[in-house]
Amino acid sequence: MSSGPYVLGGIAALAFLKAVWRPHRAIVKEGAVAACPGPNRYNICDPTLAVSAPAGTPVYSTVQGHVVAVGDRFVHIASRNESVVVMYDGIQPAVEEGQYVGRGQGLGQSLGTVYFGVTQFNPGGQAVKVDPASWLASRGQKIASKNTGAGTSWCEQGRHIDVPASSGRPCNLFEPEKAGFALLPVTVSVER
């Protein structure tokens, strides 16, 4: 009797479980978008997504990889599976530099507003800023597990995000690389 069907069935079951169940598929447990990426009040580009989360709210890793920098208020993680570094600012870190973290693992607690950014490294070593909301959406993740905001900003539009030229051009934002595996279609366009 061949073990082939059992092996294939086991692989299919693991793939389904990995695709459907993830402990935390968001930046924070509870919060709302405070500001989309784009020019700030001083007309200077801010390529981060600002998420208003009550102080003490858990903050989660959106990638699996190694913590490459930790400060009093920030954490940077280099992804194991793609050439990106994700950045969290406005958190009280609970991880150490060099530590391995998994997707959905706690990184610390919010200090009131969490700033989330994504830097992608292209072939040849060129570093580009990627729209963080688009990057999250293309990986099946959310801004907050429990969104307490109105959901009316362009960066809160779920799986179909159109980054306006007023944000994409001054910040020179790029579209994220396509995710390796996605259950639902995602469309992203960045006007630059």
DSSP summary, beta strand count: 14
Helix content: 10-25%
Shape: globular
Mean pLDDT score, rounded?
A: 85
Measure the end-to-end span.
59 Å
Quaternary structure state of the chains depicted = single chain
The main pleated sheet reads as: 10 strands, mixed
Structural class: alpha+beta
Quote the beta fraction. Answer: 35-45%
Number of helices: 3
**Radius of gyration computed on alpha carbons:** 17 Å
What is the ordering of alpha helices and beta strands?
HEEEEEEEEEEEHEEHE
Spans with pLDDT under 50 lasting ≥5 residues? none
Could you characterize what this model shows?
With 192 residues, the chain is of the alpha+beta class. The strands form three sheets. Strands 1, 4, 5, 6, 7, 8, 9, 10, 11 and 12 form a ten-stranded mixed beta sheet that branches. The longest helix is centred in the N-terminal third of the chain and has 17 residues. The termini are far apart.
Feature tags:
alpha+beta, 14 strands, 192 residues
Summarize the structure.
This protein is α+β, with helices and mostly antiparallel strands and 192 residues long.
Topology:
Blueprint: H1 4-20, E1 26-35, E2 38-39, E3 45-46, E4 49-52, E5 58-60, E6 65-70, E7 74-79, E8 84-93, E9 100-101, E10 106-121, E11 127-130, H2 132-138, E12 142-147, E13 160-163, H3 165-171, E14 187-190
Parallel strand pairs: 1-12, 13-14
Antiparallel strand pairs: 1-4, 2-3, 4-10, 5-10, 6-7, 6-9, 7-8, 8-10, 10-11
